[in-house]
Amino acid sequence: MARSALLNVMVQAAMKAGRSLSRDFGEVQQLQVSVKGPSDYVSQADIKSEKIVREELLKARPTYGFLGEEGEEIKGTDGTHRWIVDPLDGTTNFLHGFPMFSVSIALERGGELVAGVIFNPATDELFTAEKGGGAYMNDRRLRVAGRKKLTDSIVICGVPHLGRGNHGKFLVQLANVMGEVSGVRRTGAASIDMAYLAAGHVDGYWEEGLAPWDIAAGIVLIREAGGFIYDADGGTKMLEKGSLIAGNEYIQKSLSEVVSRPAPKKA
Fold it and tell me: Which pTM does this prediction carry?
């Protein structure tokens, strides 16, 4: 596949940061047996990854803005372009030696997401997409799955945990979805969830309580793979509202209806 100069910049930044994370991931796996544990080490890996990505992107395009998870937003002098970056999505997975994490980079132009890169160095999966250019995994063209019925589908989701999310609301959503689908999955990293939807590994995805850097690159991937993605209210303000429901045309619509249902009545 032919990549634009900008997408090449994004890929190079993601892979350089990914190599750094791979080295640190090996160390974290060894630190599991220590009394102190790997928490401090992981936070440093996260900060180091963002530093690498920020330096690579701003070296190539010094006037662009930059929004990352770990540091303050850089407005930039361009006024039109902004990088949106999660240097380590799936930090808890990384902390536990679970190989589902990524470097996620998106490019926003005039308020519109136009390119995305998601790289999992543990599995060597590189997902890329540009507006109008399609979505790819390691240069293989991606399409969302073609299933039309929820009963035939696997859906992926985010699960609230200690100190985060509306647990009661999610349990209602999960109870409703469980009764309609073939299976429910969770990787622990929103970017990977979205990439796997774009690749057709799962059929639908919903989650709330997300930050822009969690989902910006994945939005481009899903759209370019032929998917449909909206916020929980049926609009396109996923970055602002931090919620999304996605799938192909049929699954997205059906999943939206099920997720919005009230709690099932007790028999």
Answer: 0.93
